[in-house]
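Exercise 7. Given the encoded structure of a 395-residue chain, write a plausible sequence.
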């Protein structure tokens, strides 16, 4: 950070962040988000239809944007200093209530969901205001965020009065206006610690991938036979493949590019586009895969219905397309292998409904690892050098 520690100091109990590593309190905070993601998958699995899947994704969109706000916040203030940690605990409690409301967020708990989510966002805005008493640019950005937040929470509350398509449309509008706010009211005022920001998003990807493992266990429902065992192994192989294609090279290059970007508008917009926006597609893809795995392990000898089949194949495709967009935003080039595989998987969705679920899962796992083997070979020595530089940088 360009300012000295003395210049940054404490602002009414909020201390500016200095280090780049994610703190234990942030990891503790993210544990509640684990439950939120699990609840999204459970909502889809309880209603394994197109409408149930849409509801799960809408809830995920709202929850994601709330979490993203705290990722930006803790890149400005130290969450473990002073009374800030107490506010963070309060935010965690609000997020827990939000998570508990997820299964009935489109039913009788819709208003409770909106009010609890509003409290979660109020804590976020309040801490940002504490961190910006003498920073006019940051305060201007925070006030813009407060306006878009108020609109979104109000729309969610109004949506609780409706059901069906009208309710879903209000949710979609709330997400759009909330997420569009930072795009329109400017990016110059935000503050960012690049290493922390990239690491925080990498950790949330791991948390999302962990949901795939949880989904396997829940889907097995305490039983174990040959089919369940094979699906479990294939499920881990698929989660490992998703981990590999993000963390082996992409995460390292992107973190480096973000750190090298010019501080201010350019760096903030790169972080906003590639992490706040594009990572939503990646996490949504992972959650869809978790839903597909949960249904697959429970019905491994049967054919998948259209919605779970799309979740399994389309989820991987959306994850791959997110990675394609992520790379393009950072280095302005397209990974043709990942784009091609995403298209193939979308084409194969009808095929996934025509074969046993176990076979459908095996096909996508094989395709993913074939692509990984090809990429690993094509990276050559450059991959080893990049990973060595990253290891030295973290030493």
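Solution.
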């Amino acid at each position: 950070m360009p300012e000295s520690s003395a210049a940054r100091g404490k602002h009414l109990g909020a201390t500016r962040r200095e280090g780049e590593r994610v703190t234990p309190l942030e990891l503790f905070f993210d544990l509640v988000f684990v439950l939120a993601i699990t609840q999204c998958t459970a909502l889809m699995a309880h209603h394994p239809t197109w409408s149930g899947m849409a509801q799960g994704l809408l809830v995920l969109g709202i929850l994601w944007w709330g979490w993203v706000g705290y990722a930006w916040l803790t890149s400005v203030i130290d969450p473990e200093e002073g009374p800030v940690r107490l506010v963070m605990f309060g935010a965690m409690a609000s997020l827990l209530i939000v998570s508990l409301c997820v299964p009935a967020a489109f039913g009788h708990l819709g208003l409770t969901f909106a009010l609890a989510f509003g409290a979660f966002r109020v804590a976020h805005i309040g801490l940002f205001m504490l961190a910006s008493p003498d920073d006019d640019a940051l305060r201007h950005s925070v006030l813009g965020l407060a306006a878009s937040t108020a609109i979104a929470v109000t729309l969610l509350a109004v949506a609780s009065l409706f059901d069906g398509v009208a309710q879903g449309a209000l949710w979609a509008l709330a997400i759009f206006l909330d997420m569009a706010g930072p795009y329109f009211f400017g990016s110059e005022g935000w503050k960012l610690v690049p290493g922390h920001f990239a690491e925080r998003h990498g950790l949330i990807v791991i948390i999302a991938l962990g949901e795939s493992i949880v989904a396997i266990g829940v889907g097995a429902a305490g039983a174990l036979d040959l089919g369940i065992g094979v699906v479990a192994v294939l499920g881990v192989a698929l989660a490992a493949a998703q981990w590999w294609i993000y963390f082996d090279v992409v995460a390292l290059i992107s973190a480096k590019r973000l750190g090298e970007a010019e501080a201010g508008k350019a760096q903030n917009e790169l972080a906003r586009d590639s992490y706040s926006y594009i990572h939503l597609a990646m996490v949504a893809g992972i959650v869809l895969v978790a839903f597909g795995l949960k249904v697959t392990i429970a019905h491994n000898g049967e054919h998948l219905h259209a919605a779970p089949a799309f979740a399994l194949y389309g989820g991987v495709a959306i994850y791959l397309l997110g990675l394609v967009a992520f790379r393009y935003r950072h280095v302005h080039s397209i990974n043709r292998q990942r784009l091609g595989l995403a298209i193939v998987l979308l084409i194969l969705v009808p095929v996934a409904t025509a074969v046993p679920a176990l076979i459908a899962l095996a096909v996508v796992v094989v395709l993913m690892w074939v692509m990984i083997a090809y990429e690993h070979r094509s990276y050559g020595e450059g991959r080893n050098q990049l990973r060595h530089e990253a290891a030295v940088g973290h030493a």
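Remark. The chain has two domains: 16-191, 200-395. Students should compare their own answers with the one above.
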